[in-house]
Amino acid sequence: MNFETLDQMETYFGGVASQWSRQNLINYRQDPSLSNWFKFLKAEVVSQNIDPLNHLPSPSVKIKPKVNPVTPWVEFNREMGRGKFTKEIYGTSQNATQARKAAYEQWKKENNR
Predict the structure, then answer these.
(1) How far apart are CA 98 and CA 65, in angstroms?
(2) DSSP collapsed to 3 states, the chain
(3) Closest by CA position to 78, among listed 66, 88, 70, 69
(4) Closest Cα to residue 18, out of 38, 53, 48, 54?
(5) pLDDT by residue, tens only, the chain of 113 residues
(6) What was the pLDDT predicted at 85?
(7) What pLDDT, on the 0 to 100 scale, is given for residue 50?
(8) Which of 21, 48, 81, 83 could be disulfide-bonded to 43 (CB atoms 3.0-4.6 Å)?
(9) What would you measure as the largest C-alpha separation in the chain, in angstroms?
(10) How far is Cα 68 from Cα 48, in angstroms, rounded to an integer?
(11) CA–CA distance from 14 to each of 1, 19, 22 (Å)?
(12) d(Cα 29, Cα 23) in Å, to the nearest integer?
C-alpha cells in the first residue's frame, strides 16, 4: 500500500515510540507476515517501557497529600508545648503520661471540646 500524501504516512507511522519500532513497522508493511508483526510489537513495547517520558505522571493528575485534620489532642499538645509532662518532673514516664491525660481532660472541659 502506497501513501498518497505525507499526512497519510505521518498518521500511519506517527504513533510509534521509537525509530526502531518505526523500522519494524516499515518491514511489516513491506512484508506483512506474522513474524514481522511480532517483531514490530516487541520493538514497540520495549521502546515504550525504555523511554522515561512514558513513566512520568500526567500533568493533569494532581497529587494531594492526605492531611489529618487537627484534633483536640493535637491542639492541646500545641498549647501545652514541650517539657511540661516529663519523667524528670513527675518521676516516671507513666506518671507523666497520667498527668498529661488528666490535664487534657481538664483542658477539654474548659474549652468545651
Answers:
(1) 33
(2) CCCCCHHHHHHHHCCCCCHHHHHHHHHHHHCCCHHHHHHHHHHHHHHHHHCHHHHCCCCCCCCCCCCCCCCHHHHHHHHHCCCCCCHHHHCCHHHHHHHHHHHHHHHHHHCCC
(3) 70
(4) 48
(5) 566 676 776 776 777 777 888 888 888 888 889 998 899 888 888 887 776 666 565 566 555 666 667 788 888 888 887 788 888 888 888 998 899 889 999 988 888 87
(6) 84
(7) 75
(8) 21
(9) 90
(10) 38
(11) 17, 10, 9
(12) 10
Q: Is the pTM of this model over 0.70?
A: no
> If you search the block for the grid coordinates 491525660, which residue do you land on?
101
Residue with cell 518532673: 89
